[in-house]
Amino acid sequence: MMSLSLLAAVVWVLCASVVAFLPLRYQRPPGLLLLLVAPLLIWLLYRDFGLLAAGFGLFALLSMFRKPLSALLRRAAVGRETGGPRP
Fold first, then answer.
1. Model pTM score
2. Secondary structure letter of residue 19 according to DSSP
3. Could you tell me which of 52, 51, 40 has the C-alpha nearest to residue 8?
């Protein structure tokens, strides 16, 4: 029998694959939801299977969301350097 955390990880990957097929303008809301759910899922994998499984989950998350996360980090860095958000 498959554990609940592993089943949730499989469903998350399938949902992420479906979101990837959507046009770019429709990817934002479900992608944000996937990004918000991922830390909980990685913690569940860590709890049930250990550090190696959580490491693979974190690597997959960072690999899939590398461009959105780097854009968020750039925005945060630009906002800090100039003393506030850009107009």
1. 0.75
2. H
3. 40
Closest CA to 57 of 34, 41, 69: 41
Torsion of CA 58, 6, 20, 61, to 10 degrees: 0
Q: What angle do CA 54, 26, 67 make, to 5 degrees?
A: 45
| Contact (CB, 8 A) for 76 and 84 | no
Query: Percent of the chain scored above 70 by pLDDT?
Result: 90
Task: Quote the pLDDT of residue 70.
Answer: 87
What the block records as the tokens of 14 is: 């399938």
Mean pLDDT value of segment 22-48: 92
CA 50 to chain CA mean position, Å: 19
Q: Where are the domains of the chain?
A: 4-82
Q: Which residue has the tokens 């490491």?
A: 55
